[in-house]
Amino acid sequence: MKLQEYRSKEILARHGVPLLAGETATTPEEARAAAERIGGPVVVKAQVLVGGRGKAGGVKLAQTPDEAAQRATEIVGLDIKGITVQTVLVAPAVEIAKEYYLSLILDRAARTVTVIASAEGGVEIEETARTNPEAIVRMALHPLIGLQDYNIRRVAGALGIPKELRRDFATLMRGLDRAFFESDADLAEINPLVVTADGRLLALDAKIVLDDSALPRHPDLEAMRDLNEEEPAETAARAAGISFIKLDGTIGCMVNGAGLAMTTMDLVKLAGGEPANFLDIGGGAKAERVAAAFRIILDDENVRAILINIFGGITRGDEVARGIVEARRSLTREVPMVVRIVGTNADEARPILAEANLITAESLDDAAAKAVAAAAGPA
Ligand code: GDP
Ligand code: MN
C-alpha cells in the first residue's frame, strides 16, 4: 500500500527526519487559510500516488495566500496520469541549493534492505538509472545488524554532503531507517532531499510503500489508505477476504489458491484468451464468499465468461458446487460459466453442476479452451 506524500512525511517526522510538514487542503479557501497560518511563500502540491507530479503541473509555488488559493484552484480537479486530484499539500517553500535522492528499499534479490542514493536528485530515479547509472549509489545493509555508522559515512561521502551537514545527515538517515523498519515498509524514499540556500538539510518529498502482509500489525497505518486511488472492486474484495487484482481481459477467473490462480491465468492466455482478473477466493469457498466473488467479477463490464477452477482439499468439491449454484441465483447479469472442480468429493460435485447447466471440464486445459470459446460466442 502506497502512502500519500503528506502521510509519508507524517511518519518520517515522527522519527525525527527534518522536514516542513505543512497542511492539506481540498478547496482554495482552505489553501489560502493554510498559507496564512504558514506565512511567507508556500508550495502547493497535488496529493496523488504517482510520480512526476512536478512535470504534470501538480507542484506550484505561491508567494501570497491569494496566490496559494489560485494555485489550489488550478491543481484540485487536475488529472494526473488518470487520477483526479482531490487534495493538495500546502507547505512552506524553500530555496533549493542542491537536490539529492535517498531511499531504503527491501531488496528481495539481495535478501536485505538496500540504501539507494544519488547526488542527481529531483528527477525520477528510473530516469537517472537509465541515463546516468554511475550516479547511483547502492549499499546493501547487513541483514542482521542493519544500518551502521559506516554505512551513513559512506553514503554521505558518495553524495558529497557538505561537512557541516554530516551530523544532520546521520540523524536524517537514522530517522529514515527507523521509519522504514517500524512501519514494515517495502520502500521509504526522499526525493528530493535538499540542502537549502540557507544551509538546512530537508526532506522535500516523501514516499512510503508499506508491506500489505504486515498491515494487520499497523491499524494506524491501515487507516491511511486512500480509497480515492483504489479500484472499487479491489476495496470490495478486501472487505470480503478475497485477493483480487483487476486486469484488462474478458475472462473472469475464480480460483482457490494464489499459485493455482496464476496458473489458471497462464492457461487462459495459452488458450488464446485474456484474463479479466486475478482472484484467489481463499479457503472455505462458502456460498457467501463465492457470491461476493461473482459480484466483483461481473461488475467489470468487459467480462464475457467466468472460469472457476477449484482444487478441493479441506474444502469439499460438492460444497463448492452447491455454493456456486446458490450464489449464481443472486446474479444480476448472466455470462457462461465453466467449472472445473478436482480433489475431495469432485465426483459428488459433478451432478450438482450438471443439473444447474454449468459447463464442466475435466482438465484445466479443457476448461481454459471452453472459457475462451464461450467468451468469444454471442454474449
Ligand atoms: P514529484 O515531481 O511528484 O516528485 O514532486 P516533488 O515533491 O519531488 O516536487 C517536484 C520538484 O518541485 C522538486 O524536485 C523541486 O525541484 C520542486 N519543489 C518542491 N518543493 C519546492 C520548494 O519548496 N521550493 C522550490 N524552489 N522548489 C520546490
Ligand atoms: Mn519527488
Mind explaining what this structure looks like?
The structure is a single chain. With 379 residues, this protein is of the alpha+beta class. Helices cover 37% and strands 25% of the residues. It is built from 13 helices and 18 strands. It has helices at 5-14, 28-38, 65-75, 125-131, 149-159, 166-182, 219-222, 232-240, 258-270, 287-298, 317-329, 346-355, 364-376; strands spanning 23-25, 42-46, 59-62, 79-80, 83-84, 88-92, 96-107, 112-118, 136-140, 185-196, 201-203, 206-210, 243-246, 251-255, 277-280, 305-312, 337-343, 359-360. Strands 7, 8, 9, 10, 11 and 12 form a 6-stranded antiparallel sheet that branches. Helix 2 (28-38) packs antiparallel against helix 3 (65-75) and helix 10 (287-298) crosses helix 11. The longest helix has 17 residues, at 166-182. The protein is elongated. The mean pLDDT is 94. Guanosine-5'-diphosphate (GDP) is lined by residues 43, 45, 51-54, 59, 93-94, 96, 99, 122, 191-192, 204-205.
Features:
six-stranded antiparallel beta sheet; four-stranded antiparallel beta sheet; elongated; 25% strand; single chain; 379 residues; alpha+beta; 18 strands; binds manganese (II) ion; binds guanosine-5'-diphosphate
Question: Topology, pairings included?
Answer:
Blueprint: H1 5-14, E1 23-25, H2 28-38, E2 42-46, E3 59-62, H3 65-75, E4 79-80, E5 83-84, E6 88-92, E7 96-107, E8 112-118, H4 125-131, E9 136-140, H5 149-159, H6 166-182, E10 185-196, E11 201-203, E12 206-210, H7 219-222, H8 232-240, E13 243-246, E14 251-255, H9 258-270, E15 277-280, H10 287-298, E16 305-312, H11 317-329, E17 337-343, H12 346-355, E18 359-360, H13 364-376
Parallel strand pairs: 14-16, 16-17, 17-18
Antiparallel strand pairs: 1-6, 2-3, 2-6, 4-5, 7-8, 7-10, 8-9, 10-11, 10-12, 13-15
This protein binds guanosine-5'-diphosphate (GDP) and manganese (II) ion (MN).
